[in-house]
């Protein structure tokens, strides 16, 4: 069987195969005793040429994918989709999809505190048993979908839409209580407009026309160019003169 499979090798690979047979005669004899399964020959050639043996599970490609898994980081939830895609690809390529440590590392790489909450929910649902990486990623996206739905619902509701809450939940001793509006705030009027008209101001101020708050503006100014017809007379003094 091995002689038949050697005919499919190229020139350079066939020379390399002959050198391997001469250098490792014991392994060659073991390969012949393994039987006529062509997969054994293919695994030996793969390990000899590219240093990878899929049957042993410690190929250089798998080790490279495991190193890439360690390098993957997620600092913001905006990149969760791309992060999960790369993590799933590297995990399946490394044949570690059912590795409990690799699956838990995926949850540990999620940003806190939401990542820890999702991991606890996953443990409760699975009964503490971590299944595989594909189901873990699916569970994470289901939880994120619930969170995003609640956020969108809160954003869609305006302040006026919460009035129905008064008919559902009432605070004791506040049934039918109307809201008292605060005093209006008036902005100062612009005086650069020619058609400016003063508006009434709805506010109170302290009166200054009583003692001791007399103000000089309450006294009429004397104008020397004006003739005053009315004069102040002292009636007591006039009566004294008459008598």
List the helices and strands and how they pair.
Blueprint: H1 2-6, H2 11-23, H3 25-33, H4 38-50, H5 60-71, H6 80-93, H7 100-108, H8 114-126, H9 133-156, H10 165-168, H11 235-242
Helix pairs in contact: 5-6
Describe what you observe in this structure.
Pfam families: Caulimovir_coat_dom (PF22909). By secondary structure, the protein is mainly alpha-helical. It has helices spanning 2-6, 11-23, 25-33, 38-50, 60-71, 80-93, 100-108, 114-126, 133-156, 165-168, 235-242. The longest helix is centred in the middle third of the chain and has 24 residues, at 133-156. The chain is elongated and about 150 Å long.
Task: Tell me the Rg in angstroms.
Answer: 47 Å
- Major β-sheet, in short? none
Which class of secondary structure composition applies to the elements?
mainly alpha
- Percent helix among the residues? 40-55%
Q: What's the end-to-end separation, in Å? A: 162 Å
Report mean pLDDT, rounded to a whole number. Answer: 74
Query: How many beta-strand elements?
Result: 0
Uncertain runs are: none
């Amino acid at each position: 069987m091995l002689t038949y499979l050697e005919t499919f090798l190229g020139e350079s690979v066939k020379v390399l195969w002959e050198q391997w047979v001469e250098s490792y005669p014991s392994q060659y004899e073991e390969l012949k005793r393994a039987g006529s399964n062509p997969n054994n020959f293919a695994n030996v050639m793969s390990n000899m040429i590219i240093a990878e043996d899929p049957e042993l599970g410690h190929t250089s490609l798998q080790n490279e994918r495991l190193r890439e898994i360690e390098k993957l980081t997620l600092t913001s939830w905006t990149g969760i989709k791309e992060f999960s895609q790369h993590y799933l690809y590297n995990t399946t390529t490394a044949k570690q999809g059912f590795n409990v440590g690799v699956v838990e590392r995926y949850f540990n790489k999620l940003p806190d505190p939401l990542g820890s909450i999702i991991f606890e929910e996953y443990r409760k649902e699975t009964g503490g048993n971590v299944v595989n990486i594909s189901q873990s990623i699916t569970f994470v996206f289901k939880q994120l979908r619930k969170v995003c739905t609640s956020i969108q619902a809160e954003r869609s509701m305006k302040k006026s839409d919460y009035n129905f809450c008064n008919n559902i939940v009432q605070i004791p001793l506040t049934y039918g209580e109307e809201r008292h509006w605060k005093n209006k705030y008036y902005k100062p009027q612009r005086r650069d407009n020619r058609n400016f008209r003063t508006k009434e101001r709805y506010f109170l101020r302290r009166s200054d026309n009583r003692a001791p708050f007399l103000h000089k503006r309450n006294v009429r100014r004397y104008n020397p160019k004006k003739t005053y017809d009315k004069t102040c007379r002292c009636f007591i003094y006039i009566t004294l003169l008459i008598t």
